[in-house]
């Protein structure tokens, strides 16, 4: 975190900047801080600081707690009381500067009514090739106000009324040297320290890639999930040719700190072309290519079903025949006549006559 802003606040009333975090390249690491001051709103802190290493929030401060707090276990376990006290004091200084800035800018813009925000984003980037980058930007009510061009050592503003601040800051050569020195030196040193401390949690995690297609839907989606950091390139191809009409749903966070994204296109179910999904991410040794495998209609279940029916019919016929014969035997069978004693006597008498 950059040092106390008291001298800057006295000189220009600490104007502000609001820029959402821009993405960094896949082969780089970054340290970024976001400061937000606002006019008082019940239930919300007037000042908030959030620090990020890559996409991981690692420190936070707000005006209700009045204390810089760790957001990762590796920060809580490695930094002692002196570190947190120093960071708290720096945040307190920026909190007071934010109040002054809002007061001055509401008067300068003649916008005393309503809710106003003063924001700052600054940080540095360390690329794999050893080169570095840095930025320091201010914003007012969600719009770009003024930013530092460290190569030319000047401040740049898109606003006419921002020229007042620009002229004051350009004349203060010491201020420019201080910001440039921080971005190119101190910030990079701290970034390296934080990367070492959080090495296990900050290491790249390779994505898992799969195709999904629900039922008879024409939408074919390449689902890429479980990757970190969030910088990733996903390309849908048809017979090896990139699909320009594919749709990208953005990068969303998972509950475990990793990210997910979907890229999809509409296809003709009768299209027999080969569809593939190509993924490039820092967690992969090389680009991953996954092919869409159509689910062919198997005849096995039909054959099995037919055989079952045939067997059941045969069993039914055999059982029917057995039952039929049994009943027929009961109706047409005979009982042998019994030979009486009287009959035998008669025969004997005839024979003797």
- Mean pLDDT level: 83
Cα-atom Rg, whole angstroms? 41 Å
How does the overall form come out from the CA principal axes?
elongated
Content-based structural category: alpha+beta
> What order do the strands of the largest sheet run in, or round the barrel if closed?
4-3-2-1-5-6-7-8
Q: What are the secondary-structure elements, in order, as H or E?
A: HEEEEHHEEEEHHHEEEEEEEEHH
The number of strands is: 16
Strand content: 25-35%
Q: What portion of residues is helical?
A: 25-40%
Largest sheet: 8 strands, antiparallel
Low-pLDDT runs: 4-23, 339-353
Number of helices: 8
Report, as a whole number of angstroms, the end-to-end distance: 148 Å
How would you sum up this structure in a few lines?
The chain is 35% helix and 29% strand. The chain has 353 residues and is α+β, with helices and mostly antiparallel strands.
Structure description:
With 353 residues, the protein is α+β, with helices and mostly antiparallel strands. It is built from eight helices and 16 strands. It has an eight-stranded antiparallel beta sheet with strand order 4-3-2-1-5-6-7-8. The protein is elongated, with a radius of gyration of 41 Å. The protein starts with 5 loop residues before the first helix and ends with a helix.
């Amino acid at each position: 975190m950059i040092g106390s802003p008291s001298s800057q606040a006295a000189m220009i009333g600490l104007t502000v900047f609001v820029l959402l975090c821009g993405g960094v390249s896949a082969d780089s690491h970054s340290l970024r801080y976001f400061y937000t001051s606002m006019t008082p709103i019940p239930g919300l802190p007037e000042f908030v600081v959030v620090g990020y290493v890559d996409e991981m929030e690692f420190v936070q401060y707000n005006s209700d707690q009045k204390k810089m707090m760790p957001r990762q276990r590796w920060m809580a376990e490695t930094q002692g009381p002196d570190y947190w006290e120093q960071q708290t004091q720096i945040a307190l200084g920026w909190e007071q500067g934010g109040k002054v800035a809002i007061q001055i800018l509401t008067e300068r813009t003649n916008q005393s009514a309503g809710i106003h925000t003063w924001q700052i984003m600054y940080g540095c980037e360390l690329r794999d090739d050893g080169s570095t980058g840095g930025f320091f930007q201010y914003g007012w009510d969600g719009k770009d106000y003024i930013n530092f061009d460290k190569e030319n050592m000047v401040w740049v503003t898109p606003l006419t009324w921002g020229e007042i601040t620009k002229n004051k800051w350009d004349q203060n050569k010491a201020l420019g040297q201080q910001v440039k020195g921080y971005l190119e030196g101190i910030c990079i040193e701290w970034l390296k320290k934080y990367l070492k401390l959080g090495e296990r949690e900050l290491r790249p995690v390779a994505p898992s890639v799969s195709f999904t297609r629900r039922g008879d839907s024409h939408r074919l989606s390449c689902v890429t999930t479980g990757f970190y950091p969030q910088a990733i390139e996903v390309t849908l191809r048809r017979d090896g040719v990139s699909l320009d009409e594919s749709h990208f749903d953005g990068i969303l966070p998972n509950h475990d700190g990793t990210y997910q994204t979907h890229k999809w296109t509409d296809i003709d179910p009768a299209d027999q072309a080969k569809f593939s999904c190509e993924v490039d991410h820092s967690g992969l040794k090389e680009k991953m290519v996954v092919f869409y495998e159509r689910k062919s209609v198997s005849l096995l279940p039909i054959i099995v079903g037919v055989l079952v029916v045939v067997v059941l019919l045969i069993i039914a016929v055999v059982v029917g025949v057995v039952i039929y014969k049994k009943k027929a035997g009961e109706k047409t069978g005979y009982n042998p006549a019994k030979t009486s004693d009287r009959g035998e006597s008669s025969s004997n008498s005839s024979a003797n006559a």
